[in-house]
Amino acid sequence: MSDTEELIVEGLRKDGKPFRPSDWIERIACQLASFGPDHRLHYSNYVHPCLISGLMCLVVKKTLRQENPVAYEFVLKFAHENNLVVQEDRRNVDTTVAQDRRQSSQAPH
Fold first, then answer.
1. Is the pTM of this model over 0.90?
2. What domains are defined for the chain?
3. What's the CA gap between 43 and 28, in Å, rounded?
4. d(CA 40, CA 70)
């Protein structure tokens, strides 16, 4: 793999079919999330859902390997065992799902 800082685990299997259950990305992201002082769930800086070209994906920072090797190996093993597409993050624009949807939805228009 190259020098990019993140991996993208797509919501598609290598045969092009969507992986089920459809909420698997949120399930994994929530396992590594924590509750903040505001009593809301916040995604980890290392693993979070993301929408890329209309497809839900899981973004995994490679630094997770040093910070939490068990979690990093779990995510990659899960992707491998389920034949999910994993690639380097080559996006120029970050379209991350907001960590706090309520706060972002209350922003002035």
1. no
2. 6-102 (3.30.70.2340)
3. 10
4. 25
